[in-house]
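Severity: low
Component: inverse-folding endpoint
Summary: output formatting inconsistent between runs
Steps to reproduce: submit the following structure tokens with default settings.
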């Protein structure tokens, strides 16, 4: 029996936000509507007023043609012509847009509903038949992983983590029930790709297409995501054309002044690629009269210089500042990194939490925040029995204030001989040939203690990453363990000698100045702490919290 022709065909579908009384043409970039190579037609799609736009995106000769000419002294007459078409069909408060060829390029990018295709995939994809995932890690290392299993696999096989990862694209199988694709085909499932757009078979005939659009709309608007995947649609990076971005940029610019709230210094992803401790920094682009070579980098080094500028120019000025870490001899430890990569800022707009991190904006959903705070509360509930010396003060240029963290670690070790100061005492391994810091203090039972003041306008993410790297090295790498034992003997002048089979069993995070609660940490620091706690648990280690009080004692 001959195979019946399919009633559907795969196409890319986008959903556009439609403002009241918008003309359909307003969703198409004017340069294409005005171009001779494009035409627009008002059409009817099963009685619904729609718009078809089609044409050719022409370009000059391919960029690689000059290479051909330089090799053989010939220049073939070549050009690139790319076909593009879109069909806009309004439904409810959205405009559903079918795209063929490079049609998505001619749509106004700021009108695209971000993550529409992913939201459908998260509600209907078979969790046993996921074929590809694109995942972005949401911490100081801005990693992107694209994993493909051609035959399909369970979501668990992709190693997804509940905290700190953003899914931007999912390829998988979904039931065709409810779609035109199910009629007469004998297929009970179809393969879809969900991201901003949705690649899915839709009806070949107008009536079937409208039925499919109504079905997709109902799924996305009224169904819940697959159990366990709710949080993956809660957190998403903002597109450059998102309407919220301009307002958020203005608020960030206003916050680039000393004393501003909800802004912190954070170590950029590029920094993590460079090993070794900084003994100083060089800040290019601050302007005259500012300290451009501080020993310790503080948020005020940036904000003080920026505050002299108008709010309209601060963000551009921040991006022009370049920060480079230096060693004790003034040599470069890191590359020069733009100032906006060193800032974390968070703000609430229209009931949503937004975070600026690593030069990008993220929308952090309320359900994700609730889940994250719950995890951080459980982490902070694991209190250590250690008692650390109170944090003393010292005379500074602008008055009396708390000593810097390095000085506190030295002071604590001098006050309590069961504590060994290992701040900046690097250990070197084959994997970390430029050195890592195992801990700030080694406790009386060989706890790895990492120290942080929560009110010093520096993101705690760097400390949590340091604790993770240290724990992994000392639990898993024999040369790290040997180097650590040698460093402990050296710094203690032989008073402490760890056994050859030493493996750390406990990490202690010691916080000063503010009470250790989720509110004390900015959102991205909470993400990094949650991932740190998960990794330390996987290494069969305990993670505990201790608070350090403040002292009125004055020291040099």
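Observed output (run 2 of 3):
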């Amino acid at each position: 029996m001959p195979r019946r022709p399919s009633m559907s065909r795969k196409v890319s579908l986008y959903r556009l936000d439609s403002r009241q009384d918008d003309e359909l043409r307003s969703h198409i970039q004017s340069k294409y509507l005005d171009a001779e190579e494009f035409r627009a037609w008002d059409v009817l799609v099963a009685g619904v007023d729609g718009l078809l736009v089609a044409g050719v995106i022409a370009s000059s000769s391919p960029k690689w043609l000059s290479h051909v000419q330089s090799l053989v002294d010939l220049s073939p007459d070549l050009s690139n012509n790319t076909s593009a078409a879109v069909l806009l069909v309004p439904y409810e408060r959205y405009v559903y847009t079918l795209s063929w060829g490079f049609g998505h390029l001619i749509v106004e990018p700021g009108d695209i509903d971000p993550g529409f295709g992913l939201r459908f995939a998260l509600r209907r994809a078979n969790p046993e038949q996921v074929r590809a995932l694109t995942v972005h890690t949401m911490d100081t290392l801005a990693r992107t992983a694209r994993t493909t299993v051609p035959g399909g696999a369970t979501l668990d096989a992709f190693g997804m983590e509940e905290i700190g990862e953003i899914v931007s694209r999912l390829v998988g199988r979904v039931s065709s029930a409810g779609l035109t694709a199910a009629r007469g085909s004998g297929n009970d499932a179809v393969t879809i790709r969900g991201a901003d757009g949705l690649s899915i078979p839709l009806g070949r005939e107008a009536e079937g297409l409208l039925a499919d659009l109504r079905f997709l709309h109902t799924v996305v608007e009224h169904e819940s995501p697959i159990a366990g995947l709710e949080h993956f649609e809660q957190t998403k990076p903002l597109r450059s054309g998102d309407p919220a971005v301009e307002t958020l940029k203005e608020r960030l610019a206003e916050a680039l002044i000393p004393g501003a709230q909800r802004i912190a210094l954070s170590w950029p992803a590029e920094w993590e690629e460079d090993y070794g401790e900084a003994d100083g920094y060089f800040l290019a682009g601050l302007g005259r009269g500012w300290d451009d070579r501080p020993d310790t980098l503080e948020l005020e080094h940036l904000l003080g210089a920026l505050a002299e500028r108008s709010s309209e120019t601060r963000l551009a000025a921040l991006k022009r500042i370049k920060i480079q870490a230096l060693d004790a001899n003034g040599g470069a430890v890191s590359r020069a990194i733009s100032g906006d990569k060193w800032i974390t800022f968070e703000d609430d707009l229209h009931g949503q939490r937004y975070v600026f991190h690593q030069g990008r904006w993220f929308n952090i959903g309320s359900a994700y925040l609730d889940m994250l705070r719950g995890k951080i509360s459980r982490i902070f509930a694991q209190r250590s029995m250690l008692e650390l010396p109170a944090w003393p003060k010292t005379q500074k240029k602008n008055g009396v204030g708390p000593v810097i963290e390095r000085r506190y670690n030295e002071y604590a070790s001098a006050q309590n001989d069961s504590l060994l100061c290992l701040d900046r005492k690097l250990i070197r391994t084959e994997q970390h040939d430029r050195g890592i810091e195992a801990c700030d203090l080694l406790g009386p039972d060989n706890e790895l203690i990492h120290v942080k003041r929560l009110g010093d306008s520096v993101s705690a993410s760097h400390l949590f990453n340091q604790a993770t790297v240290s724990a992994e090295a000392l639990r898993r790498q024999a040369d790290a363990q040997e180097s650590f034992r040698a460093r402990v003997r050296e710094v203690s002048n032989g008073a402490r000698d760890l056994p050859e089979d030493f493996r750390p069993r406990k990490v202690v995070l010691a916080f000063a100045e503010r009470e250790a609660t989720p509110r004390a940490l900015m959102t991205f620091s909470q993400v990094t702490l949650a991932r740190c706690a998960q990794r330390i648990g996987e290494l069969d280690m305990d993670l505990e919290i201790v608070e350090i009080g403040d002292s009125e004692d004055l020291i040099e």
